[in-house]
Amino acid sequence: MKKMGKTMLARKTLKEKFKEKLYRDAYIKRSNREYLAYKIRKIRGTKTQTEFADMLGTKASVISRLEDPNYEGISLNTVTEIAAKSGLAVYIEIVMPNEFIELSRARLEKDN
After folding, report:
1. Which of 27, 57, 66, 73 has the most neighbouring CB atoms within 10 Å?
2. Quick one: residue 41, left, alpha or beta (phi over 0 = left, psi -120 to 50 = alpha)?
3. Is the CATH number 1.10.260.40 carried by domain 29-111?
């Protein structure tokens, strides 16, 4: 029961923080960058960055940047190209900020 209480408190705290536009925007941007970096790393699987880069027609240094959650230069075009060359598709949904919290938690649970 204690754990559930902490989770509920954490969600309430985050929802309260989401009322501040600067915090909300930074949180969403950071969360999306981290998720994209994680997904690209997951798509690469057991291949080295060099092997994956060769498959995509790019350089290992590019893959390294894309897998860095602090890298801000990834474009939708790059994401869709990586997905397509990996036999995958990209699904995008635009949601209200309060929906983002629950949806981002759900996608992380699904991936783990």
Report:
1. 66
2. alpha
3. yes
